[in-house]
Design a protein that fits this description.
Elements lengths: L3 E10 L4 E11 L4 E5 L6 H8 L7 E6 L2 E2 L5 H8 L2 E4 L11 H12 L4 H14 L15 H12 L6 E5 L7 H18 L2 E5 L3 H7 L2 E6 L2 E6 L1 H5 L4 H8 L15 H4 L5
Parallel strand pairs: 3-8, 3-9, 6-7, 7-8
Antiparallel strand pairs: 1-2, 1-4, 4-5, 9-10
Helix pairs in contact: 3-4, 3-5, 4-5, 5-6, 6-7
Length: about 270
């Protein structure tokens, strides 16, 4: 069971001149699926990398399953990451391995399971995402949606307690997007896992998550259940959810006087 506790998390670069995250705090209970939404460059992926233990905070901490990640030694962090699964943007399958070998990779790398058992587990994972019949294909023979589903099967190969998704819907057609979204929710419930989803796709995430955090300029500016987010009267949330062109995120980049730029003197 993966409980996540983020406490006063701050991440800065360039001797504090660039602040990626500032005093971020929240808590996620086991089995919950939650989403981190926000515009590009707001700190979403930085936050996800901290949750996965890939970055150390400038101050504050993140606890996963009761352990402060940045205090773990290399062996402890390695052991923690064995309990995590990560679906990278666009899947990131090994292009020189078959579908079967992609899904089997973590089992062979991190366990001493016999090959006969690995075979059965790989087939079960592929069956769960509807692609058992693709086991002998290469990634180049798959559509984008199918490749993402194979990557999802690989992500859950070791039944992780925490699953992280970095833009899982990027580049998918409407059918594949719906299929992947449904799989994320069903696999989360079937595995009893905690899921963290970083995405720009508001409408799909509203269908499958329990809770949402909006990040802007490195801080959490809004949070709530899908129903609360859809009913929010906060201008930033309303603009993001409904895709409005202008608002707190302006259409025009700040500039000088328009008349001056056109050479108008009067």
């Amino acid at each position: 069971m993966a409980k996540i506790a983020v406490r006063h998390l701050t991440k800065s670069y360039n001797s504090g001149k660039v602040i990626a995250l500032e005093d971020v705090s929240f808590e996620v209970q086991p089995y919950e699926s939650f989403c981190i939404l926000g515009p590009s460059g707001c700190g979403k992926t930085t936050l996800l990398r901290h949750i996965g233990g890939a970055l150390k905070p400038t101050s504050g901490h993140i606890k996963v399953d009761g352990q402060i990640l940045h205090e773990l030694d290399q062996e402890g962090l390695y052991e923690m990451r064995r309990k995590m699964g990560m679906l990278f943007q666009f899947g990131a399958l090994f292009t020189d391995m078959s579908v079967y070998d992609n899904v089997a990779f973590q089992m062979r790398e991190h366990t001493d399971l016999p090959e006969e058992l690995i075979h059965d587990l790989v087939m079960m994972k592929l069956h769960a995402v509807g692609l058992r019949g693709t086991h002998d294909l290469m990634p180049s023979e798959l559509s984008g949606g199918m490749a993402r589903r194979v990557a999802l099967a690989r992500t859950v190969a070791l039944d992780p307690m925490l699953i992280m998704y970095d833009e899982p819907f990027a580049g998918l057609d409407p059918i594949s997007l719906t299929v992947v979204g449904d799989l994320i929710r069903r696999l989360n419930d079937a595995l009893g896992a905690t899921s963290v989803i970083v995405t720009h796709d508001v409408q799909e995430s509203l269908k499958i998550v329990d809770y949402i955090y909006f990040v802007a300029d490195g801080v959490i500016v809004a949070e709530g259940t899908p129903d609360e987010i859809q009913a929010s009267d906060k201008s930033f949330v309303r603009q993001f959810v409904h895709g409005e062109m202008d608002g707190p995120v302006p259409f025009h980049y700040p500039g000088g006087d328009y008349r001056t730029d056109l050479g108008v003197t009067a």
